[in-house]
Design a protein that fits this description.
- By secondary structure, the protein is of the alpha+beta class.
- It has 4 helices and 9 strands.
- Strands 1, 2, 3, 4, 5, 6, 7, 8 and 9 form a 9-stranded antiparallel beta sheet that branches.
- Helix 2 (111-118) crosses helix 3 (131-138).
- The model has no long low-confidence stretch (mean pLDDT 94).
- The protein binds a DNA duplex through strand 4, strand 5 and helix 3.
Length: 202
Amino acid sequence: MRLKLPRKYYLNEDVTRISRDLIGKVLVSRIGGKLTSGIIIETEAYNGVNDKASHAYGGRRTERNKVMYSEGGRAYVYLCYGVHHLFNVVTGRKDVPQALLIRAIKPADGIRAMLKRRGKEEIFKAFSDGPGTTAEALGITTRYSGEPLTANRIWIEERGVIIDRKNITAGPRIGVSYAGEDAQLPYRFRLNEDAIKMLKYE
DNA sequence: CGTACGATCTGCT
DNA sequence: GCAGATCGTACGA
């Protein structure tokens, strides 16, 4: 079973719900002639204008983050620390700036290509354990910000991976201490380590 | 126009 | 455990 998630999937108005639901889905890129993918194992939700950790907090709308205000189903990619390209999925209604950060994947297709992009010889523990390395492995850069996830460059598939919801832990987001009380919100979703090891897909 | 800094990663101690 | 890398972006002057 390989079903590209349709436009409608991204229109749900609860970004935390989509963030949790995307655990076990497969993020795919066809970039530079290579098909690469991985099972999503960690996400973070950024919930609209009232979330102090969000780039759209207080209605901030800039050249960088304007894609957050589009209808769900597009990529929002931005440069972090001048070094890392972080890949986000825009969700929800137009003019409601919700997005979720893909923080980690378990490699699936095109592993050699991903290792090459990462400048690594073989898989090690931190292969894609973090949002910067995940985007790098998939070849995703800021030039793909705004890209529709219904096209054939970057998309997400359902592949029938079975996820037991009790193996998903929700906790505070990483690196958002500047967000005051919102830094404590349980908007980070991660599949437990033993469940990651057991992951299988068709 | 100038400046401070970040939804991070790595390597060295 | 911690500092350095590295630069586009945001925001104030």
